[in-house]
Amino acid sequence: MNDSPIRTEFLDFKYDQIERVEMIKRLLEESRRSTSHAAWPISFMNRDCDLDMIFVPIGLLMYRLENGRTLSLQDEHLAINPDLPDDFFTRDYNSPEAQSAQHCLLMKLSEIKDILATFRDTTNKQTEPLIITNTGFVVNGNRRLSCWRHLYFEDKVTYKHYEYIRVAVLPEADENAIDKLEADLQIAPDIKADYLWHTQARMMQKRIEERGEKIEDIATLYRLNKKDVEERIEMLQYAREYLRRNNWERQWSKVDQGDYTFGPLVKERKKLNDSIEKSIFESVTFSTITAGASGVVEGRIYAKIPDIRRHLTPIVEAIHDELPDIIIDDTSMDDASFLLGEPFDGDQDVIGIAKALITLSAEDQVKVAKVAEEVINDENAKERERKSANYLVDQVKKAAVALNNAVDAIDEDNAIIKGLDKLLGAIDDNVDKLRAWLAEYDNNN
Q1: pLDDT at 181
Q2: Does 171 map to a domain?
């Protein structure tokens, strides 16, 4: 589902914020006086509390534009709509235009089809309240609300049960408390998986950069260790650079599956010591990701990344020999040091390759990825051959060690020797076969 029609009933926004606050307040007062008054238990602001529940018109509720789940989608929306101001989603949370755009973004979430299909079945109705602020913004349940709105305005008769929505109202609180509640709710086992990796990483980065929170505190909030948080933020940095190089700035949907590639990139890059090596490894990995996304390079891209790092030197040699047209001759990095050795005429060739790989077109990225894959296949085949060549000697070494251990056990009083003679006979036969093969091998070589 790429778009969702939004009816005029929603666009008109019957209630401004003052009206919403007054209606919510009035409904809460009526509910507390009612014998059917109900509450919803929740942990909020470091204490357990019961939130009053009420029914409100579906048109009253507003999406929370700071919803972490849509953080990347909002960024991408601004990237593909350059006429919109950068503060489109933050300037006015009550903006009908921003609210309508947010509805469309929520309907684009990958899991929304399943949610919509569930509630399209009229036997499935609301079971848990949406959690809202006292001003009518939805803290938890934005996806459900978008689906109910879609269904209700699509067919008000069939889905009349969504005309009024049950909500649990939070007490007045600041944004930090609201954000913490969202984080607490998102890390529940049934919710955590819904957050795309880059969305979660951007939420973490936002806390660090805009609020000055410490990584240790963020790790505690998300129930991760400090190293995991640092790694996620590093992955985000590489993803951002990858998008920039491909002229896809802020188009985060292009790296939705990036946790399988940027994670290994971070881990493997740390194993390299030199800045030029790191740059080349990063660029070759980016090219492989691009080629994989286009279907040119097949297989699991994340599994190729360790091989790119292990075989980096022959990959660079192959790029030098097979793709000379992409190499830049530049002396501006003469003071760079690296550990690739001198496989070519000099280090300047490697510097030129490193610089060239940073500015590759999509077509050249595919060329680099193909060269890298060929080298990896060849090098892995050579490793298998070397392993196979050593296999015979390795197995005889193991047998020799085992026999030495057996000889050392001769003097043990409780040694059991039943069947030993037969085993020794088998050993003698195999030794004779190996000696015969070895004599024939020596004669032929």
Answers
A1: 85
A2: yes
Residue 276 burial (10 A CB sphere; 0-12, 13-18, 19+) = buried
In a domain, 202, yes or no: yes
DSSP E strand stretches across 73-144: 130-132, 137-140
Question: Are residue 13 and residue 131 in the same domain, yes or no?
Answer: yes
Residues 314, 320, 326: CA angle, nearest 5 degrees: 135
Beta bridge partners of 55: 166
Integer-rounded Cα Rg, in Å, for the chain is 32
266 lies in a domain?
Answer: no
Residues 303, 255 within the same domain:
no
For the chain, what is the largest distance between any 2 Cα atoms, rounded to a whole number of angstroms?
A: 104
**How long a stretch of residues is the chain?**
445
Token code pair at residue 207: 């806390």
My answer on whether 54 and 82 are in the same domain is yes
The answer to whether 287 and 369 have CB atoms below 8 angstroms apart is yes
Provide the whole-model pTM.
Answer: 0.70
Return all residues near 281 (Cβ < 8 A) that are at least 6 apart: 268, 269, 272, 308, 309, 312
The answer on 169 and 38 residing in a single domain is yes
What would the pLDDT profile of 269-289 be if each residue is shown by its tens digit? 999 988 999 999 999 999 999
Other beta carbons less than 10 A from residue 131's beta carbon: 21
Query: Residue 330's domain spans which residues?
Result: 275-286+296-408
Is residue 349 assigned to a domain?
yes
Region label for 247, one of left (φ > 0), alpha (ψ between -120 and 50) or beta (otherwise):
left
CA angle 298/304/307 to nearest 5° reads 145
Whether residues 304 and 256 fall in one domain: no
- Which amino acid, residue 339? L
Supply the DSSP string of 171-184, one letter for each residue: PS--HHHHHHHHHH
In terms of domains, do 334 and 375 share one?
A: yes
Other Cβ atoms within 10 Å of 158 Cβ, number: 12
Same domain, 160 and 205: no
CB 230 within 8 A of CB 220: no
Residues 109-157 pLDDT 10s: 877 888 999 999 999 999 999 999 999 999 999 999 999 999 998 899 9
Do 50 and 138 lie in a common domain? yes
